[in-house]
Amino acid sequence: MRVLAPALQTALDSGASTLARCWRITRRDGVVLGFTDHDLALSFDGVSYEPGTGLTSSAVEAGTGLAADSHAVEGALSSDQITAEDIALGLFSGAEVALFTVDWTNVEARTLLSRGQIGEIRRGNIAFEAEIVGLSDRLNQPQGRAFIHTSTQAGPSGNCGVDLSDPAYRGTGTLTTGSEAVRLIAEGLSAYAEGWFTGGNLRWISGRNTGVQGPVKAHLVASDEAIIELWLTPPLPIGEGDQFEITVNCNVTAGVWKERFGSLEDFRGFPHIPGDDVAASYPQTGGAHDGGSLFRN
């Protein structure tokens, strides 16, 4: 059972409609924003809650046990603190959200209604809708190490055991004329053979998409220029002169790893683990049924 602050309980018992909702949003870059559905600004705990943002909330669904609480907020893109560009750049994705019920005549009379993080965001030209999921939703996320054939600790974070700052594995490209959203034509990568960055990661370091990163579909070479094809369209328009960093793919098989990095010392996959084909196999006439290794010369 939720225990309310005495002052808030008194306000509720009075029957007066002096309640408002306040949302405190802490973005991934550390910026803290406050919003309220009241018509005047409210302030507490060092945060000012901006009114008049057109922000409305659905009912909060709270479950028992480990079920994740959830609700959604809808709002117009009328606040200078919430822009379509920031949403497109993913600054609000995964942001922490605290929802308060507040007596606007006495902000000390308040209670924390729920806490969670922003999940899926859907937006249009003038409005957006954000799903708020409870903290227990993290229990639904895969944790720990995966037992797969390829390296298990690969990715753009560079935790694959390889120094991805080495120029042999990381390059810097600059867009030239003719670049498209998912087909980039760049200079500065002539030292790398075709296909070297296929499956790798690209991160923008200048232009409107600075900080955005995503997977590389293909790396081609034409004359002295590189053609980089992306799986995902950058959230904002690109322009000639925009720069990016591109790194090789660490999520590869043992054979490719040894060829690319020289040894298997840092390889963290399981190349000899039996696959689904072994689990679905059955004894056959003439086979060696001695319980020995499945990998014979």
Provide a concise account of the structure shown:
The chain has 297 residues and is mostly beta strands.
Alpha-carbon Rg, integer: 26 Å
* Residue fraction in strands: 25-35%
Give the termini separation. Answer: 66 Å
What is the number of beta strands?
15
Q: Element order, helices and strands?
A: HEEEEEEHEEEEEEEEEHH
Strand order of the largest sheet: 2-1-7-8-9-6-5
**Fraction of residues in helix:** under 10%
Segments where pLDDT lies below 50 for 5+ residues? 63-68
Based on Cα principal axes, name the global outline. flat
Number of helices: 4
Global structural class: mainly beta
Please give the largest β-sheet: 7 strands, antiparallel
- Global mean pLDDT: 80
What does this structure look like?
- The protein is mainly beta and 297 residues long.
- Helices cover 9% and strands 33% of the residues.
- It is built from four helices and 15 strands.
- The protein has helices spanning 6-14, 84-88, 254-261, 276-279; strands spanning 19-26, 32-36, 42-44, 47-49, 56-57, 70-76, 96-103, 106-123, 127-134, 170-175, 183-187, 201-204, 213-222, 225-230, 243-247.
- The strands form three sheets. A seven-stranded antiparallel β-sheet has the order 2-1-7-8-9-6-5.
- Strand 13 and strand 14 (225-230) form a beta hairpin.
- The longest helix has 9 residues, at 6-14.
- The protein is flat and about 85 Å long.
- It starts with 5 loop residues before the first helix and ends in an 18-residue tail after the last helix.
